[in-house]
Amino acid sequence: MPLFSILCPVYRPPALLPFAVDSVLSQTLTDWELFIVCDGAPPETVAAAESYSAQDPRIKVRAFPKGERNGEAHRHTVLQEAEGTYVAQIGDDDIWLPTHLAAMSSLLAEVEFGHFLEMRILPGLVPNMVMASLEEGEAQRILETSKCLFGPTVTGYRMETYRRLPEGWSPAPQGIASDAFMWKKFLRLPDITIRTCNEVHALKVPDYFRSHMSIAQRRREHERLALLAADVKARESLVDFAFKNLKQRKTKA
């Protein structure tokens, strides 16, 4: 049985999907199964996903009609057959650093639910660190509001904890972010152990900063990001820059 079950939901054409999947294949920890969850994705996306599955039996493709909201219910369906001890998720337009799963396994060996810092990559490959600490009130903020400062790409949880939830992944009500709606369910569990790890192991590449970019432009950007992620010194420099920029923002504030 694999240590990790990984979800990769996708609804769009496959131009960016290979970068996410390749970053999973590049993990230093190799004990995983990856479910590419096609939420009404076009046939060419399903075909691209199946080409990976044909080459690596750890990769599994599950194709569904378009689900409500972000197809959250499909994630729950897939987790019913998943066999991992831990659960992780990667956005189809995000990139994990090679250290992601190894670091997440260390975190989840100690707590039931945890996350790394989310480093968002702005256009021009500018890193923007987002600080959120479950130990400093972020958990209460999630419970009281409709948003949170870390998404699925940097979050992990134990499968046994997911099984304890009264309700798993399901469509979020309008006005509430899918991840915030899901994290509320975990945080309401009595005596759940949680932690923020102030490390960076992923590149979050948000759509909402890129409405002006064509898919060809985004693919070229991802090609550059993949090279950065694969180079130890380059990714360390990127993370260092983001932390320094964050410190400067706090000083000015």
Automatic annotation (TrEMBL):
Domain of life: Bacteria
Xref: Pfam families: Glycos_transf_2 (PF00535)
Coiled coil location: none
InterPro entries for this protein: Glyco_trans_2-like, Glycosyltransf_2, Nucleotide-diphossugar_trans
Glycosyltransferase 2-like domain location: 5-105
Protein name: Glycosyltransferase 2-like domain-containing protein
Organism whose genome encodes this protein: Terrihabitans soli
